[in-house]
Amino acid sequence: MKIFLVLVNVFLGCLAAPNGWIIGGDNAAPGEFPHMLSLQWHFIDIRRHNCGASIINEWWALTAAHCITETVIEHGGTLSVIAGAWDFREPTEFQQEVAVERFVNHPLYPGGGVVAPHDIGVMRLAEPLIFNDRVKPVVFPVPNTLATGTGVFSGWGNIQSDPPAVFPYILQRADMPILTMSECHDTLIQFGASHLLNLDGDICTGPLTGGLSACSADSGSPLGQWDGDDFIQHGVAAWTIFPCGRVGAPTVHARVAAYIDWINENIAD
């Protein structure tokens, strides 16, 4: 059994233009997820989509802490975000790229790119985003609430369960059932991973029948539910069991509602 951070391997994998999938998803429609960001890593001549992120406001973005520790802290280089993207091959007038000026990871996340609770971080941008029809912020849920039902997830992560990894040009989307924490804990026992679950700070998605999952390069991407035109963000993708989409294996996300006070304290400037 391998526990798998849903972060892109920055040296391996290939891009493709498939007909689907996150793992089991579909192409998103242009502009369907205006809060979605591509977190890009730059190092010497390497430039690559590394993780997902979401827009908090004009100056701040939300992602997984390991997206930062596995790149800038461990390997060097710089980060930027691309807003308003849909197909990496076809930039539009809506698209904006802004450098990441600084970041703050949750103090209880141990760093080192490990699978651990509190895998959440915020990033201050060097310039403000300009909102338009395809660049908009998320809305946070009521603090400490528990989401139920079905969430919608988006990302540019790996679409192939077996190696080699294949990364899409087009943003992917998938509807994912939200599991109870007892369901999530119990199913992780078979993988020896239940001790990694933060019952007070995570949210899990299925289905446990397999074939639908976040995967590498989906880390940091948002899970949420629509309320009219507002996207209520409930989760920040963190980890799953490898290979992605295994029967009985959930996707684990940091639960945004558990961290709202911490987020607000760190984006107050």
TrEMBL record:
<dbReference type="GO" id="GO:0006508">
    <property type="term" value="P:proteolysis"/>
</dbReference>
<dbReference type="InterPro" id="IPR051487">
    <property type="entry name" value="Ser/Thr_Proteases_Immune/Dev"/>
</dbReference>
<keyword id="KW-0325">Glycoprotein</keyword>
<keyword id="KW-0732">Signal</keyword>
<dbReference type="InterPro" id="IPR043504">
    <property type="entry name" value="Peptidase_S1_PA_chymotrypsin"/>
</dbReference>
<protein>
    <submittedName>
        <fullName>Putative trypsin-1-like isoform x2</fullName>
    </submittedName>
</protein>
<feature type="domain" description="Peptidase S1">
    <location>
        <begin position="22"/>
        <end position="268"/>
    </location>
</feature>
<comment type="similarity">
    <text>Belongs to the peptidase S1 family. CLIP subfamily.</text>
</comment>
<dbReference type="InterPro" id="IPR009003">
    <property type="entry name" value="Peptidase_S1_PA"/>
</dbReference>
<keyword id="KW-1015">Disulfide bond</keyword>
<dbReference type="InterPro" id="IPR001254">
    <property type="entry name" value="Trypsin_dom"/>
</dbReference>
<dbReference type="InterPro" id="IPR001314">
    <property type="entry name" value="Peptidase_S1A"/>
</dbReference>
<dbReference type="Pfam" id="PF00089">
    <property type="entry name" value="Trypsin"/>
</dbReference>
<dbReference type="InterPro" id="IPR018114">
    <property type="entry name" value="TRYPSIN_HIS"/>
</dbReference>
<feature type="signal peptide">
    <location>
        <begin position="1"/>
        <end position="16"/>
    </location>
</feature>
<dbReference type="GO" id="GO:0004252">
    <property type="term" value="F:serine-type endopeptidase activity"/>
</dbReference>
